[in-house]
Amino acid sequence: LSLLAQVRVACDGDFGRLVRVVKLVGFVNSTPDFTDQPKVINGASDLLVAVLGDAGRHSRSAVSAGALPLNVAVEIEGIFEVS
Questions:
Q1: What angle do CA 2, 72, 54 make, to 5 degrees?
Q2: Which of 11, 13, 23, 32 is surrounded by the most beta carbons within 10 Å?
Q3: Where are the beta strands (DSSP E) in 30-82?
Q4: Domain 2-82, CATH among 4.10.91.10, 3.40.50.300, 3.30.1330.40, 3.40.30.10
Q5: Interaxial angle between packed helices 2-10 and 37-52, expressed in degrees from 0 to 180 and rounded to the nearest 10
């Protein structure tokens, strides 16, 4: 949701300026034996498609991280095309 809020700011409050989501990268704070990072990031991908329709479809990477800032569980980076 924070990512969508930042996109809204970049669009000057007008989501109509959002052309598409280009790519998401999800970093999952996990142990070396955990291998389901893509399943964790599915929620973010599914939300973008649910909210934005076809414009929310994107390429994606899901990466394991041994630690993240402030010990958060997940960090999402996004690239968006805006008109």
A1: 35
A2: 11
A3: 59-65, 74-82
A4: 3.30.1330.40
A5: 40
* Whole-angstrom distance, CA of residue 30 vs CA of residue 37: 8
Of 59, 61, 70, 1, which Cα lies nearest the Cα of 29?
A: 70
Specify the pTM: 0.87
Label the pairing between strands 18-29 and 59-65.
parallel
Residue 23 CB partners (closer than 8 Å, separation 6+): 58, 59, 60, 61, 78, 79
Which tens digit of pLDDT belongs to each residue from 2-36?
999 999 999 999 989 999 999 999 999 999 999 99
